[in-house]
Write a structure and sequence with these properties.
homodimer, alpha/beta, Lyase, Ornithine Decarboxylase, Chain A, domain 1, TIM Barrel, 2 domains, 9-stranded mixed β-sheet, 8-stranded parallel β-sheet, 17 strands, about 30% helix, D-amino_acid_metab_enzyme (chains A, B), Alanine racemase (chains A, B), lyase (chains A, B)
């Protein structure tokens, strides 16, 4: 693959110049405000970018699944992993134990059942496993519901052989910065009153990443999307189209009517993720076009007037949600502008366990 | 992997007993009504099931992408492929030419541009390529818009060196059986009046598969979903839960509130496909539960009353859309009831080109 025009479609392109600038910019923001950056690698699933993020100053990486962590540390360069997921079941606990021997590891828990499982797996480990309490600050997914419950679970962790209490963690709702601050101040006070120092308070989420400093009690921030950005973040005013490092290159395969064209990218590349938006992505340079419908291998472009496209034309699309698009393909094409660097294998693609 | 309880989650399970029954039942229906069955393999992407479908009596298989066809014929047992996609661009046309040397191949076209590309690639081929005209019978995706346009494109195909006109093809809208019949009767009449016999009329779509005989002009039917079935087809009355061969096995990782539980399957297994439904799947045996929210690795179960689940419990989910779920994982687990047959590699997973 030597020329941009030779890239076969659909293809997921990653502009490394843009990604590197995104990594530097958010790292500088974290450094300015004095909190640690712990990027979520679910967005790119590429060891080379995990190493880039770490080299730029990240304190470590965040993974959702053990298999993601295994893939990210295989090449070296990453030595600190937070798994923001309740690890449940004997198969995964055995893998977690093995992972702890290879990297500085911390995990989360939001219930006594999860703590008991972790404790059983690490009771005879050479070093205790660091466990943060996951707190629900309004997203209503996982997490203990109150600061008092956070303190109680922290005490349970600290009392469990093989485990040590490592702090508090939350995945807040969009716009939840103030709620994070309030919850964490109260939970920290309760923990400290119970004799447990809170060494780390981890929050995250891309939509509010530039407001992270408004919850000053937070000591580390997790965001994945910042490395690529996407339409959901542009539409929320978090970044610009020029900051979007991941695009999908597609070819027009049909223009059945003047106001309609069909491209060779459907849900099996762009996915059906809407994130509250209308339509399925943004065609760069063509704000008049809407991707109004996707089937598995077709995307439909419509316009109020003529689409002005011909069979064989190519378009570049900023997807609604970049994190899920990386996961659809075995490799992305690294580019710098229109210069091609080559394919990058998405090492942790499909690593759901 | 020896026991059902040892399957690590999330896992995509395929019950081969159910799949085999589904294949037999629809084949018997096609045989009864005297049309050919040409299953779409995008649903399973498994050579073993393509061979099963062919052995059961299918006239060949349908693929959307060249790479799917390459993966399906690699093991043998499949000798006839229809590619229901406009093939555009030199890289794909070269692969199409190579594919034509390995299998009985037909493709579609809906424009002069596509026909010209195919003709250039096959002008010096030992045998002409069979090209069907894709017709828009109301789905407004690809396809020529009128029977007269179908006739005109058929003449263009027949006049192109390296190509031969092979018939008409459509992907109709749901409920479009009568529209298919009307369009195809008119188009066939026009083609025959122009001296072009229409040897094959191909329609498809899972929602109307049991009504295929209501468009008696159709000579072959394409459906993918029938091999597995899914929630979208149960909700439309096309099949029952017991006919659903593909399920997602997931583990409860959190029960943060009495009316809420969280499982380890999110959009990276179940996908965000809604197909017009509310919620993200059906929990077998628990019609009181709703999967009201997915993030990438979490699924949220809610109920009006207590969810009655504990951390570590497992649930089996019939997804909204089975075809996209197969594509999320490198392998599925073949089962017969609760007996495990073993993993099956999803050979054509992620084959988007």
């Amino acid at each position: 693959m030597t020329a941009f025009a030779d890239i076969d479609t659909p293809a997921v392109l990653v502009d490394l110049d843009v990604a590197e600038a995104n990594v530097s910019r958010f790292q500088a923001y974290c450094d300015l405000h004095g909190f640690r950056n712990r990027p979520h690698i679910k967005t790119h699933k590429l060891p080379v970018l995990a190493k880039l993020q770490t080299a730029a100053g990240a304190a470590g990486i965040t993974c959702q699944k053990i298999s993601e962590a295994e893939a990210m540390i295989a090449e070296g360069g990453v030595t600190d992993v937070l798994l923001t997921y309740n690890i449940v079941g004997s198969a995964k606990l055995a893998r977690l134990r093995a992972l702890a021997g290879r990297v500085r590891l911390s995990v989360v828990a939001d219930s006594g059942e999860v703590v008991k499982g972790l404790g059983a797996a690490f009771a005879d480990a050479p070093d205790p496993l660091t466990v943060l309490v996951e707190c629900d600050t309004g997203a209503h997914r996982c997490g203990v519901a109150s600061p008092a419950a956070a303190r109680d679970l922290a005490l349970e962790i600290e009392a469990t052989d093989g485990l040590r209490f490592g702090g508090l963690m939350t995945y807040p709702p969009v716009g939840g910065t103030a709620a994070v601050q309030a919850f964490m101040v109260e939970a920290t006070g309760l923990c400290e009153a119970a004799g447990l120092p809170v060494e780390r308070i981890s929050s995250g989420g891309a939509p509010d990443m530039w407001r992270a400093h408004e919850a000053p009690i937070v000591t580390e921030y997790r965001t994945g999307t910042y490395v690529y950005n996407d339409r959901s973040l542009v539409e929320r005013g978090v970044c610009t189209w020029a900051d979007c490092a991941l695009t999908v290159l597609a070819t027009v395969v049909s223009v059945p009517a003047p106001d309609r064209a069909v491209i060779d990218a459907g849900t099996k590349v762009l996915t059906s993720d809407l994130l509250g938006l209308d339509g399925h992505g943004h065609v760069l340079g063509r704000p008049d076009l809407r991707i109004d419908q996707l089937s598995e291998e077709h995307g439909r472009l419509v316009a109020d007037g003529p689409v002005g496209l011909r069979v064989g034309d190519r378009v570049r699309i900023v997807p609604n949600h970049c994190c899920v698009v990386s996961n659809m393909v075995d490799s992305v094409v690294a580019v710098r502008g229109e210069r091609i660097e080559g394919p990058l294998a998405v090492a942790a693609r499909g690593q759901v366990r």
